[in-house]
Amino acid sequence: MSEIKESIEDSFTIAEMEARKIKHDSYELWIRSIQPLLWLLIFGEVFNAVHQLAPPGYTYLQYLTPGVLAQSVLFVAIFYGITIVWERDMGLLTKLLSSPSRISSVVVGKALAASIRGVFQAVVILALATIIRVNLNFGVFDVLGVFAVIVLFAMAFSSLSMLLASFFKTRDRMMGIGQAITMPLFFASNAIYPLSLMPPWLQAIAFFNPLSYVVDALRSMLLTGNYSNLPLDIVVLVVSTIIFVGLASLALRRIIE
């Protein structure tokens, strides 16, 4: 029990250290907010008249907002490995990995820090949705559930990014692999159009795409109020998080070799 307690304390200590960096330099987060804002203000408004893209009774902007929210968190998380490479180049990561903290605590701590960035993005997007009068569910439990999903999602994909960083090891390579992963994940999901409009081969890909389950969970809480698929969505997300955190913990030391 004491070892578990120490690991948890170390993880939160590392997360707090990372959060201080965000507090002192939030410029990057505001810059990353521009892309999802454009999706809502331009793409969403243009396609709002195409009723086939949204379920009956909802506007396309309502349908799109959870997808843009998931996309924004995905972009923040998947490029987190670039920070790991930068810390390696500065010698900070070597010091951290040579400390008494377990590697798993380092991974979890940094993944939690990525989730803070994801929550920030969520607050910005939901605030914009309110300003442009997108009708969403803002019940207390729904909003808390949305933040919980975002935390797990950001932890999963920031851990995947750290795993990739341990193999690619340079910022240029990480930027390229991040772009190569995010766009296929985004377009092969239900983020911007229903699965029913996809050809069968793309539906099969979307079925195995974790982003589809994240978007489905967000829509159930922010839009439809239909929670029938929510348990499956959460299970897929939790399993993905555990797998990616575990793999990143096993591989992270490779980055300093």
**Gyration radius from CA atoms, angstroms:** 18 Å
Give the termini separation: 32 Å
Number of strands: 0
Question: Which structural category fits the helices and strands?
Answer: mainly alpha
Mean pLDDT: 81
SSE series: HHHHHHHHHHHH
Tell me, briefly, the overall form. globular
Main sheet makeup: none
Proportion of residues in extended strands? under 5%
Number of helices: 12
- What percent of residues adopt helix (DSSP H or I)? over 70%
Q: Which residue ranges are poorly predicted, with pLDDT under 50 across at least 5 consecutive positions?
A: none
Report what the structure shows:
The chain has helices spanning 2-24, 27-32, 34-46, 60-78, 80-90, 92-97, 103-131, 140-168, 171-187, 200-207, 210-224, 230-251. It is an all-alpha fold and 257 residues long. It has one domain. It is globular.
List the helices and strands and how they pair.
Layout: H1 2-24, H2 27-32, H3 34-46, H4 60-78, H5 80-90, H6 92-97, H7 103-131, H8 140-168, H9 171-187, H10 200-207, H11 210-224, H12 230-251
Q: What are the key terms here?
A:
257 residues; mainly alpha; 12 helices; globular
Short description:
The chain has one domain. Helix content is 77%, strand content 0%. The protein has helices at 2-24, 27-32, 34-46, 60-78, 80-90, 92-97, 103-131, 140-168, 171-187, 200-207, 210-224, 230-251.
